[in-house]
Design brief:
Oligomer: heterotetramer
Radius of gyration of chain C: 25 Å
Shape of chain A: flat
Strand content of chain C: 15-25%
Distance between the termini of chain C: 46 Å
Radius of gyration of chain A: 22 Å
Structural class of chain C: alpha+beta
Largest interface: A-D, 59 and 50 residues
Number of helices of chain A: 13
Order of helices and strands of chain A: HHHHHHHHHHHHH
Strand content of chain A: under 5%
Helix content of chain C: 25-40%
Number of strands of chain A: 0
Chains: A mainly alpha (291), B alpha/beta (383), C alpha+beta (538), D mainly alpha (297)
Chain lengths: 291, 383, 538, 297
Amino acid sequence: MTRFLKIIVKEVINTFLLVIGVSALLFLLFNMMPGEFLGKGEGVRSFLLLLKRLFTLHFGVSIVSGIDINSIVFPAFKNTLILTVGALFISLLLAVPIGIFSAFRGFKTYSWPLSMLSYIVSSIPVFYFGYLVLYLVSRYTGYLPIYYVQSSGKGSRVLAYMLPILVLGLGNNSICEIVRLITTELDRVISTDYVADSRARGESILASAAGEGILIPLVSIVFSKVPFIIGGAVIVEQVFNWPGMGRLAYQSTLDRDMPVLIVIAFLSVLMVRVGMIARNILLFHLNPREA
Amino acid sequence: MPLIASLGGLKVYFYDQKDKRFIRAVEDASLSIDEGSVLGLVGESGCGKTVTALSMMGLVDSEPGIVGGEFYFRPKGDDRRSVIHAILRGFRESRNYRRGELVNLFYGLENFIEFRHNPFTMIKDNEKWLRRHNRIMEYIRGRNISMIFQNPLRSLNPFTPVGAQLMKTIGRFNHEKDENEIFEMAMGLLRSTLLYNPESIMKMYPGSLSLGMAQRVIIAIALASNPTLLIADEPTSGLDTTNRYRIIDLLETIIDKMNLTLVLISHNIHIVGLIATNVAVMYAGIIVESGGKRDVLGKKHGPKHPYTRALVSSMPTDSDIKRGKRLRVIQGTVPDNKIAIRGCPFIDRCQYAKGKIRRRCREKCPDPVEVGKNHLIRCYLYY
Amino acid sequence: MKQFKRTVFFSVVFILIALCAAPLLFSQETGGTLVYGEYGAPTRLVPILANDSISIRLIELIYGSLVFYDSNGEIQGDLAQRWDIAKDLKTVTFYLRDDVRWHPMPGESEGERFTADDVVKTFKIMMHPNTVTSLQSRYNFIAAVNKIDDYTVQFKLRKPVLNVLGRFSFKILPAYLLQGVSYLRGDEDLSIYKHPIGTGPYMFVSQKGLSSEIVLKAYDAYYLGRPFIDTIIMRPFADQNIITQTLLYGGIDMEIRVPPRDIAEIQGDSRFELNPYSTLSFSFFGYNLRNPVLAIKEVRQAISYAINRQEMLDSFFEGKGQLISGPFAPGSWAYNLDVKPINYSEDMANSLLDRAGFTERTKGIRKRGSYELRFEMVVPISKENETTKRVILAFQNYLAKVGIQVDIKWLEWKAWTEAVFIDHEFDIIYADWIFDDSFDISSLFHSREIGPGKNNFGAYRNPEVDALLDEANTTLDMEKKRTIYRHLHAILAEDVPYTYLWTLTNYAAYNRKVRRVEIHPTRFFTYVREWYIQRGGG
Amino acid sequence: MKRFYYEEEQVDVEEFHVPIYRRASVRDVVSIGFGLFVVAYLFIFYFISITNTFIQNPMDVHIGQMFQRPSFEHLFGTDFLGRDIFSRIVKGTEAFFVPGLLSIVISTSFGLLFGIVTGFYPKILSRIIFYFLNVIDSIPRLILILIIIVLFRPSIYLIMVFAGITSIPKVTVYIQSKVEILKNQRFIEAGKALGLSPGSIILKHIVWLSAKSVLIIHATLGMGEAVLIETSLSYLGFGVQEPDPSWGNMVAMGIDFFFQGRLWLSTIPAVVILTTIMGLYLLGDGLNSIYNEKVSR
């Protein structure tokens, strides 16, 4: 167990250092901003001030609307978290079966159109895909799945939550990457001896090949997709009026509201690094040789 | 002793997309395995002995795979009914699917294959055949026949500890047992394969096992489901000499203790000579000679088939080394298995195929002829 | 005789209808929630700082002012009960109501009392030089304010002003929350930024973050009688197209400004009512006369001739608006009807440009010596006014046909206001002016209004116009002022400091269940007290 | 589904036959074919839009002919200002073509440099380099670009420079893993034994022979990402602005008319974006499985 703890400690330190690096980069960019505003100071002192504010999680005031950033960013962070995790789940839910199916079926009859479909769907530009889904759903179900409609207006609550997650999960070319990775990895593992051996013992191919063939590539890719999904979220939130960090980032870019953007970048980095920690720990757990 | 399995006329082809030609892995292999015996299957590498073993286990996936032959096998009591049910699925009339207690696992193969000649074409629905065959073999693999592969380290799942793999296999076959009973059985198995500290081995990952230990674990796992027939494909070739003999002794004790039937596949005739009761010699996809060890390798009147004779003489025994005899090498190479052989495959390298006999050898491959008590030879010398 | 009978008959019928409709009219029910959609989010809910229309509408609900114009244009008292204007028209005293209380702070049941200090404190902060506001120019006619007693306040004016009362419609802030604050820049850490407190008909309840909805509740102790609608919710949208769809699907009950292309769809739907309200504003292309080429009158006239405004109005705004020939709202007393809008004729534009000497053309752009007809147009980025983009691109194309190249530069709202009003780094802009109640255009064209932060961004200087404007501002005779404005209209039409385009009739759309809706052109919610929601939905 | 096998007459198989590329399966042929088709039409569009010979002027407005259906005169119909959509799509390639190449050059060259340095001198140097790369890698790319936009109000070229910078870590990881594998391969040691200078070893053997395939694959995938970034930014209103055409802002403009049923205005550019991204992705994918490189993610 001690090796396990060692890994966790190493990861946390690494993340801590990285987060400081990111805040330094953001601070540099922050100071390059033309014009004069509150958080801008000279030299290390104000950098420490920024660090203190970031690490103690109360981020001061946005220069445009004067509202305390905490009250804006945290609900947005929660919403984006829901969206990101949901999208990851949807991508996996679809990509893994297709990947397994095309790995087993190879390039024959109906495995080819399925993986091609996954390529097409995941290459649809997210901004168009969102609107298309919105238009079709509102035309044929009579509900307009906009985040707000459900909170106090007509329209089904589930649909309003589901659609942005579905769109971000399907689009944003995450599915085709996962499908391709699983197909290649699974092919490689199926042809190894130990799978043949376990088949000889009567185990199903999938059970024996799942460990190295699916789980490990999945863990390594899923968490490295977090930054892309947050990026995609910016656009999906814009389309579905989903009050998440992405839309806040877009709005503050329009208003040139740097402090809010810096905080959003900081929280996104936190999300990415937490994902990385989880990834490394899981990988270590699954793959002893990676000690 | 009663037969436990008998392979008749096995024909396994693979297909090379680029050259549009068939790779004739196994041309015509027939074996009969008595219960409790040790059958040694010997032949140079590339003669199809591994493919024969794999087709017995039903693990030949590539196309077209098994295209001919029948494999009669006697499943254990409790699996008999489900195996028969699986075999007869989809067939209204059931002709000779059974011979005594043995059941033909390749039953109905011909319905999936259509042959045409000039040019030689074949249509096989391999997907349907595999789906059907896997359903049949589901009751056979592990339960009745289990198999050991060549390189022990690569046959163990590197991501799960050894113990877990062993217990999982045990658990699969005796559902009713609970956790520590299975643990006990696993320990017992590990001790039975002469591993001295089973507790620590249970927790280790395959990566940190030595070759010898790994092979023993593989054997333990294979026996976990107490099969009736064990196929060992080159179990000793990956090991150094001391381990090699130790594994042979281990196999010998296991067979006696668990009245197991063993099919030992090896290219080393001496290893086979040590423990085999019957021997079958394979060359270029054909079983050229099969019979009791004494008849085939026997000192009294020496090996019969030219290839067997050449094979035996080319392997130096300890006494040869002592006497410093010159090694005798078989000229020529194994014929390319892409080209259909009309005559006897050994014709180019056989020193007896001279004069009149050569003509017969070239036209047609000799059918097996009974020379002694169930001692068959495919050579015109003995017609 | 027949004629007489028919009129009698009609009048009788009419009275009957009125009688039986009366109960319907006056049975206003209390309760219900009004949810209206806005594009974008409000910047600040503090009257002095806010200048975007979204915040202005919310401020109208939350804060009260001394006086206000009612629906048929008369002055009504709000926080002020009585007032009298001294004979020399230079001092105005307001006698305030004593029964007004500020909205309660969150958690308390009752707010502070409203006194004269609040008025004085608000005015002082508003006129403080460091305060970042655009309102100072409108109230610099007031010299000073002093508190007579708790409920009377007196304003000293610099010069007598015609119908001065209309000028006292600025909103009042709670002094007791602004102790120690002498000016407002917007980035202080004040409680009123997070939780605004006012005396208006609706109290601020909650806003869960910048881009989430704002909830307002009716203020029970409102001195002019509690409004009928219980709660009003402002819901910000990130995308203009979604708002109309959300209205159609019942997500919101009212949309402030329906984009022209959606009007047909809403008209066809019986559940909704389209309520046109003219916004007392006009759109124009403004020129920076500091640019020597644009200083030439013929060039500006040529530009006005080169663009086909009627075609743009019809195809981009579905004809929902009216072309204008001068900087006044048509139909108002100041509008000179016999000055016709410039009609579209390309060859007139070309001949004007030739007469101005720009005859040679290189790569399709007219030149005269070193001067080239190439201008930079500065436009605020915002996806919402998709019609703005169509107008600008059409404008660029029309001018390209007559050999004038226009390069478009897109800026955010803040950067755009700086570039236009402070740094004057632009050649042409497309914008619109909103009139306050007194149609005072001196701040647009008077030469003293030139300079950073002032509204005469184009640096238009015309002594005759200056004289006329000063005279108009000082006369107390309404008739004289009208003739001066009509004369100004003729000059400004001919001098073309702006190319006047059109005034748009905006359409508000709301669910039929919302009744007796009266809309104020700019502040929208001024008459919200009359609105009510018919039980039983649409 | 029955499989059909058929054998020609006796054919003597030529002796020496080592397949350099693993024989491409049907899947690879399809994806590379489609990818090359996409690359072809990109070049054609770019060439046409530079010399603007074939297409009408994408900027001129005919208010009379708004929202026209695709006809012979306007291949894809006209948009909300009567401008010809086909010529705007052709001109749209100009928006991301050169910036895309710029981003690829940056990410590939720096990626190669860092990859080799970290591959050969593992200890402290690579740890530092990887630290900085991780810093860049952990900020989501679109948010970093939004920050850049707030700061410098950049043109599409500067945005693509940053897009290139953010994909340096990916290339570095590829190259480093390649170098790790090859470093102690026989033929590298043989080269050292022969006294070849380390520079030539690196350049000739590692870079040219084996890293070439990884770089080509990254170039195609990188171009796909460049298209995605440029169109997303133009959609949000930050990238290429009206009146210059870009697929992103054409979709954005079409969106406003979506709910009136005029779908095709934004569908056409969206479909073009889709085929381009998919084509480039499949090309990279096909090449990858042909060279059989293990592109570790």
